[in-house]
Amino acid sequence: MSSHAPHDDGLNPPIPSYDEAMLSPGMLSNGQLPSPSTFDPFSPMGEAFYAPENESRGLLHHTHQRQGSTATNGSRRSANRSSRPRNSGYRPPTVETDDEDSTWSSSDDERTTRNGRDGDDDDLEVEAAHVRREMIELDMEDPLDSNNGRGRPSIFGKGFSLSLPKWASNWRLSIPRLRIQLPSGPESPDGTAPSFASRFGRLAGFSRVNTTDAENPESADSSANTQDTTRRRWFARPEWTKRINTAVAIVVFVRIFAVTMILGFVYLLFMSDLFTSLSRRLGSQVFDPESVRMHIQMSVNPARMRDMSKHFTSYAHMAGTEGDFALALDVKNLFTKYGLDDVTVDEYYVYLNYPRKDGRAVEILGADGKATWSAKLEEEEAGGEAAGHQTYAFHGLSKAGDVHGPLIYANYGSRDDFKKLKDSGIVTDGAIALVRYYGTQSDRALKVKAAELAGFAGCLIYSDPVDDGFIQGEVAPEGRYMPADGVQRGSVSLMSYVIGDVLTPGWESKKGLPRLAPEKSAGLVKIPSLPLAWRDAQVLLQQLKGAGQRVPKDWEGGVPDVPEWWTGNKTGSPIVRLKNEQDEETQQPVWNVYGRIEGVEQSAKKILIGNHRDSWTFGSTDPHSGTAIMLEVARIFGDLVERGWRPLRTIEFMSWDAEEYNLIGSTEYVENNLDSLRRDGLAYINLDTAVTGGQFHAAGSPVFSKLLNQVMKRVSDPNVNATLHDLWEQNHSTLEELGAGSDYVAFQDLAGTSSLDLHFDGPGYPAHSSYDNFDWMDRVGDPGFVYHGMLGEVVGLLLIELADRPVMPFDMTAYGDSIGQWTKDLMQWVQGQVDEANKAGHGDKAHVSFTKLQEASDIIAASVREFDRWDLKWESQVLASGGWESTSLGQQRTEYITRMADFETNLLDLEVGGGIPGRTQFKHVVYGPQLWSSYDGDLFPAVKDLVAAGDWGRANQTVAKIAKIFEHAALQLLE
């Protein structure tokens, strides 16, 4: 055997000789330390000394050496090996040399007598031959083979060489070799048992030349006779078995058995219930649920949210503008920084309008048609030079136009208000309406729509101090209410008719898809409008004195220096010009930004949390109180992921665009992902105008009732030293019904995803004005960002329970009870309408049968109670098994969660043409916007629309249809 030079491929370090490995670290063969001047740490011996694995091996062998001892054959061999020169190849111990007394090899004395040579040399040669033959037979590598210096390649070598570190690249993976003590075979003619080498050779088919037999034929014949006798003993043995040696067959069998056991263990571990239970058990130990909850609460940082609010309100950013795009990139970068998965920007092309600098005017015209007075329109500069130019006062999605006509005051601009004008003889055709915000008609768009239906040519909406001004309290920037120059911008899109892009109702606004012409959209009003400060409205109201009729007392507002409030009329009112020239973009890009945390068990199922990013002005309250909270929660959950935590279900963080115009970003997303949301959307949490004060409010699907109460008990208000739950009960608060004024609408009413809207309310804030800036929030809205922090805790706890509790904590019983109560409320409301119809002489057809709907609501109540019992059954089974959950039980649990979430989806009317009649975009049979109050929302809006219109026949059909949908939802729950 010759020594081999080290390879140059850099993967395999030089292997030390056996003698070198036997030495203590740093010792030469003569027992001396190497000289610093001559020792090469990169030589084969140097590497042996410095490699940690070689160092430990050397220490082990050195400890067990007995230099100079001749007590045993093994120790004598060690002494001989130490005195003889060796090559650099290290030979690991073999089966034959592990045990000195093994019957698998002959003794040293026998070898010395037989060969007449040194027993150790013969032992080494015979031993090497035996090992090589065995390796050839079993297709294993021979580390002593001198053909290539590395032995025959292992069948595992290629697959593992790239994955192992450099120091381990000389390892070879093989099945453990088992030593088996076999009974002796037939004796040889001289009375001795045949050696293992001879038997191994016959099995392998080797031709071994026996010099004794060749020189002595009699001995050969005797041997042949003995073999014949042996063969006759096995006269029934098949021919093919003559070539099989029993010892090797057993070795092969044992190895096959070992492989089978290993594969069986792997299957048991990774494919059976054991792995599922073990992985969950380990996860619960590493990430204790209570520790995670505490970590979330302790990680919420109000100071960080304050900084975030300051940044996001530092410049104006209406949807589709440069400022909006810049903040979209900021959100994207933050999501990425926080370690969220699959951070993406989703672009849509939608219809938006923008004001022109000189394109808007409100003027009083003289007899010659020239302006005698012009409204200022714009607010005083509130943002400061660092914030850039604040936005112009205008209405989103308003009608462009330049109209003029007599001014007529119409209170809050409700349909009843316009009806009173008509009944009093006031001619409104071609006039300009002046109405105030809030009151009996909360939706500004429906104020304009009502004016349009009453024949007005244009509409002006102002903020009155009696509703939102100094009469209520101190005004901004020092207080919460609108100052004299404050203007409430906003959209006049008809959200109760169409949500999302008004040119693509029912489908996403992507390139290449069809689009309506603006004049054909049901979501746009048909007369121009503008918002005003009461400072400008004051002049107009003063000019109405003596024209038309004195208004009723409840029509009088709080604008100062208006001694008498008059309606105005066609002949006595001043002529007012309303000019609204604007830029209209039919395919303006807007940008949603998404980041997700992938779930480990039900990755397709998702819990979504969203907040819109666009703002009419700086938007410290609306929307960026919600933005700061959502980003803080995203940071905390990203930190959990970095620590190795993952939820059972996927969490998605969504930054919506163009919400202010018509809930555009969220609706386009829902329409673009409608099927997957109906299948996999579990819950949606909405943050919009999240903090304006200190009173907690929640509106949403009843499934959140129990969970919300649990979470509120964990969060305390430091200002009053009480938990949110205590304050909730003191205020007699309840989970409110969802309205229709924010991004939850598309999820709840189109996709059937159970939704929840959260916020801390105050007595007021300067809504949609330039006074809603960081300075106001920092000093007035939420000093110290205390309530930002509290809502951050609430949201974080809700997310962790919804996404990571084994059984998602939906309160299905609460939903069943609510449906029963809502049905009774609907019956009472309809009965009131029937009574009015009877009084008016139209009672012959005024009747709606609720028998089937009552029965269906009772079925739902019973079904959800039966359904809820499975949760207790699951818990008892897991506890009974010591916390282990079988795979079959885990599958039942995930199916249970799916049916739980599907219940809300099954309340959608998905028939062709289904949904609220005339507004089929809204599919939920329970929730939906009121036709004439989209902000408030309503229950059973389809039935109420038909009853209000006097269409009793279709009302009965709709009630029967809802009953069938209820029964189907109850049936699906228990399948």
UniProtKB/TrEMBL annotation:
Belongs to the peptidase M28 family. M28B subfamily. The chain crosses the membrane at residues 247-270. GO terms for molecular function: carboxypeptidase activity. This is Glutamate carboxypeptidase 2. Residues 75-88 have a biased composition (Low complexity). Residues 1-124, 211-230 are annotated as: Disordered. Residues 404-491 form the PA domain. The keyword Nucleotide-binding does not apply. CDD domains: M28_PSMA_like, PA_GCPII_like. Coiled coil: none annotated. Gene3D superfamilies: 3.50.30.30, Transferrin receptor-like, dimerisation domain, Zn peptidases.
